[in-house]
Amino acid sequence: YCDKIEHYALLPARTLEGHTLKVMANVELFEEIPSVLKMGADGIGLFRTEFFYLQQKRLPEEELLYEYFSKVVKAIKPYPVTFRTLDMGGDKLSSALKFEKELNPALGLRAIRFCLKQKNIFRTQLRAILRASAHGDIRILFPLISSLEEIKEAKELLEQVKAELEEERVPYKTSIPVGIMVEVPSAVTLINFLIREIDFLSIGTNDLIQYTLAIDRSNEQVAYLYEPLHPAVLKMIKEIVDVAHQAKVPVNVCGEMAGNPIYIPVLVGLGVDEISLNAQNIPLIKKVLCSISFKEAQNLAKKLVTFGSISEVRECYFNTIGKWIERI
Ligand code: PEP
Ligand code: MG
């Protein structure tokens, strides 16, 4: 045990019983990578590729994207990087791309929907990511998946792009894990079908809470209703973990919930295998992980999912972890 938070950057994230979680970083731009390494991340669990596009005046061409992604892959080596394909639209609009004005942008043409409609943009990004894979360890993550068809279509396109590269004799890694963001309620309902199509998954709690509770994540008027401990949210996470573990697929959580020390006990208790968060919070989150008991967290989570009201969950949760906090 050590008082200094920075000390925990260098330690594995291990509960009192030795149950280890992978702690990865959420990254928006290349410049953050030195801090990711310094804070002791096991790699990049979520690289939000849209931020590079947002910096450009024009739509970036393949070569520019390839150089950028390669730079990321080489800088994080030997750790892996999970490239999330373009999650544009909604609240992230680029002047380089033409977006129609929408009445409900969060329910509109964003993320994978946009990419499957603008296939040339998607294809160019996939080519650049695949080419960058020749330089290190990468994974590909599709955002906002809401049906089996979307995964299949995205994977089919990925295979087409691979075949093209092969024909052109351009090098890339053939064994790249492909995963989905689970952040739309329909993906949770269908998780037993979707799981067969993927190598890993990442729960995007920011959007999953938004769409499950019908609370616009950017609307301050309803921010007080945005509740990670809502029993419906906890039940969904439990369902995802149960199905994924049966299929031997690891579960990552990359929403803000994973970067907040308050929610670490419930995520661990629900059986999450990996978390991905802003690099600055990693030492603190590791410290919390090192101070909790996996068994106690499991028992707590088991109890939490029996409640039907937010207040019961919150009361039980904070009463219990209140006692644990003294150990942190
Ligand atoms: C999420 O939805 O939880 C997530 C991590 O993705 P983003 O915040 O980029 O939508
Ligand atoms: Mg999201």
From TrEMBL:
UniProt-annotated location(s): Cytoplasm
Keyword Coiled coil in annotation: yes
Give Gene Ontology CC terms.
cytoplasm
Q: Where does phosphoenolpyruvate bind?
A: 48, 84, 206-207, 217
Residues of the active site are 254 (proton donor)
Which Enzyme Commission number(s) are on file for it? Answer: 2.7.3.9
- Show where the PEP-utilising enzyme C-terminal domain sits: 10-292
Q: Which reaction does it catalyse?
A: L-histidyl-[protein] + phosphoenolpyruvate = N(pros)-phospho-L-histidyl-[protein] + pyruvate
Regions that span the bilayer: none
Output the superkingdom of the source species.
Bacteria
The primary location reported for this protein is cytoplasm
Q: Name one GO molecular function term.
A: phosphoenolpyruvate-protein phosphotransferase activity
The cofactor required is:
Mg(2+)
GO terms classed as biological process? phosphoenolpyruvate-dependent sugar phosphotransferase system
Q: Which residues bind Mg(2+)?
A: 183, 207
Keywords linked to the UniProt accession: Coiled coil, Cytoplasm, Kinase, Magnesium, Metal-binding, Phosphotransferase system, Pyruvate, Sugar transport, Transferase, Transport
Which function does this protein serve?
General (non sugar-specific) component of the phosphoenolpyruvate-dependent sugar phosphotransferase system (sugar PTS). This major carbohydrate active-transport system catalyzes the phosphorylation of incoming sugar substrates concomitantly with their translocation across the cell membrane. Enzyme I transfers the phosphoryl group from phosphoenolpyruvate (PEP) to the phosphoryl carrier protein (HPr).
Q: Which family does it belong to?
A: Belongs to the PEP-utilizing enzyme family.
Q: What is this protein called?
A: Phosphoenolpyruvate-protein phosphotransferase
Q: What is the species listed in this Swiss-Prot or TrEMBL entry?
A: Desulfofervidus auxilii
- Give the residues of the full protein shown: 253 to 580 of 596
